[in-house]
Design a protein that fits this description.
By secondary structure, the protein is α+β, with helices and mostly antiparallel strands. The chain contains 19 helices and 28 strands. The chain folds into two domains: about 270 residues, Aminohydrolase, N-terminal nucleophile (Ntn) domain (Glutamine Phosphoribosylpyrophosphate, subunit 1, domain 1, 4-Layer Sandwich), CATH 3.60.20; about 190 residues, Rossmann fold. Helix content is about 30%, strand content about 25%.
Length: about 525
């Protein structure tokens, strides 16, 4: 729920390159320049390293982000920027693009895509090869230095952008530090870049097979979720974790290939969707547009159910299942549960926007009137992905305004996607009460969330999840609804019809999550919150 206090951590993230001759290194420093150009210096490249500043000591996952990569016979900055615009719903705190046109060019800054990239900026992003990233962070995250893409010159020019979260970040980082590696941010995207670069340095060449070998060795050590787009000076590459937790899709048009988090990002820039990158697969595309791919790790798909429930755009298709269709199915499943109650309502209303398809299907299934009960301010960020409760609370007052004539005196079935903390739902229900609703029955397309996510969804600590310690009836009273119905786990699985990760619902994690990791995660989140409040 959106931020009224703009002070918190909406920094302008800009960088300038400075040469440190005594250490043969190039440094990122905060400054008032937005375009970074990194010339290729053969004599220095193997010894050079990029250093960025970071202001927070806890590891920062690059959670629900959006990524895109393009390789073409022509300039790619326009396609990258427009593709990121179509992924803006996946992250609204920062955006970045890196291209290669004889040398690396990069722009990354806090803010929306439309404000970060002007026409003049795009002209500076020369080249027919590039990657882009939009980002939202966890609570308390400082953006300075942690925005993506990341890049390095050792052992060759490599840049990557990540969507996901590495569970064993601390262990791997400590191991690399003992090996004299220097880290300059708190992002696990930087960890993946450094690990990949280290493994690539063991190869004799920097071709597809070398990257396959290097990435396989790295995957053997990573625990978590990661969908990656990356580039060298000569190729675009992408890979997906063995569980395919985060989406990644390949598209093509006449003389170009693109890889993105969602099909909508490909389609809006004129690419035909070819296929999903498979679980554990790496794709490598050279400048001749020759494509090589290989399954590097045994596939054990466990797709994040929240992509279909909330995060992805409804016009996207992920792993061959349409987001819109899945949400219709979720509404039909809720209709089955509603029939069992014997209750009556006058009208069905969605909480915009993600619950709209489910509400439509719910109403159709039951022969009820569907109407819009709220008008949404589309210039307010998505409240679920805001970093603090204060921001979410403030945004809700600006985001939704009830249509009194559609609400007053009516018994309402109100559909929403999920209930995490309960604070937002309580305020939405109260908005309807204040507008004169006679009854408000609350239905959720997602089952109760009882466990934290370690794979890239910012779901708070376990003690903040209202369903952990409270029964459905207790939650109903807390949020002020006349009745409360959650989707069932079985209904969710039927609606999406894919092998899913439902760890936040049932506590069954697809990768090994130790008690120590869980405890550290709780501490980290508390530290982040304390840091955030100290800066507000």
């Amino acid at each position: 729920m959106a931020a009224l206090k703009l002070k918190a951590f909406y920094f302008t993230m800009v960088s300038i390159m400075a040469w440190d001759s005594t250490r043969t290194s190039r440094r990122h420093r905060s400054a008032a320049v937005v375009c970074i150009t990194m010339p290729r210096r053969a004599a220095a490249s193997s010894a050079s390293r990029l250093v960025t500043t970071a202001d927070f000591s806890s590891p920062i996952g690059d959670l629900m982000c959006g990524i895109i990569g393009v390789i073409s016979k022509s300039e790619v900055s326009g396609d990258l920027c427009n593709g990121l615009l179509s992924l803006q719903h996946r992250g609204q705190d920062a955006a970045g693009i890196t291209t290669f046109g004889g040398e690396f060019h990069a722009i990354k800054e806090a803010g929306l895509v439309s404000t970060v990239f002007s026409k003049e900026h795009l002209k500076k992003l020369e080249g027919n090869l590039g990657i882009g990233h939009v980002r939202y962070p966890t609570c308390g995250t400082v953006l300075r230095g942690d925005s993506q893409p990341f890049y390095t010159e050792r052992p060759t020019l490599i840049s990557i952008a990540q969507n996901g979260n590495i569970v064993n970040y601390n262990e791997l980082k400590e191991e690399m530090i003992r090996g004299k590696e220097i880290f300059d941010t708190q992002s696990d995207g930087e960890l993946i870049l450094k690990m990949l670069a280290s493994e690539v340095s063991k190869e004799k060449a920097y071709d597809a097979d070398s990257f396959f070998n290097a990435t396989r060795r790295m995957m053997d050590r990573l625990n978590g979720s990661y969908s990656i787009v990356g580039m060298t000076a000569k190729a675009l590459f992408a890979f997906r974790d063995p569980f395919a937790l985060r989406p990644l899709i390949l598209g093509r048009k006449a003389d170009s290939y693109a890889i993105a988090s969602e099909t909508v990002a490909l389609e809006t820039i004129g690419y035909k969707v070819e296929r999903d990158i498979q679980a554990g697969e790496m794709v490598f595309i050279d400048k001749s547009l020759h494509v090589k791919s290989k399954i590097l790790k045994e596939a054990k798909p466990a797709h994040c159910m929240f992509e279909w429930v909330y995060f992805a755009r409804p016009d996207s298709v992920l792993d061959k299942v349409g987001v819109y269709e899945a949400r219709l199915n979720l509404g039909r499943e809720l209709a089955k549960l509603w029939k069992e109650t014997g209750k009556q309502v006058d009208v069905v209303i969605p909480v915009p926007d993600t619950a709209r398809p489910s509400a439509v299907a719910f109403a159709e299934e039951l022969g009820l009137k569907y109407t819009e009960g709220f008008i949404k301010n589309r210039y307010i960020q998505r409240t679920f992905i805001m970093a603090s409760q204060e921001k979410r609370d403030g945004a809700m007052k600006l985001k939704l305004n009830p249509l009194i004539k559609e609400v007053k005196g009516r018994r309402i079935a109100l559909l929403d996607d999920s209930l995490v903390r309960g604070t937002t739902s309580r305020k939405i229900i109260q908005l309807l009460r204040d507008a004169g609703a006679k009854e408000v029955h609350f239905l959720l397309t997602c089952p109760p969330i009882r466990s934290p996510c370690f794979y890239g969804i910012d779901m708070s600590t376990k003690k903040e999840l209202i369903a952990v310690e409270h029964s459905v009836e207790e939650i109903r009273k807390t949020i002020g609804a006349d009745s409360l119905i959650y989707q069932t786990l079985e209904g969710l699985k039927r609606a999406i019809a894919l092998p899913l990760c439902t760890a936040c619902l049932d506590g069954v994690y697809p990768t090994n999550i130790s008690e120590q990791t869980m405890a550290r995660f709780e501490r980290q989140r508390e530290e982040e919150k304390q840091f955030h409040w100290s800066k507000v």
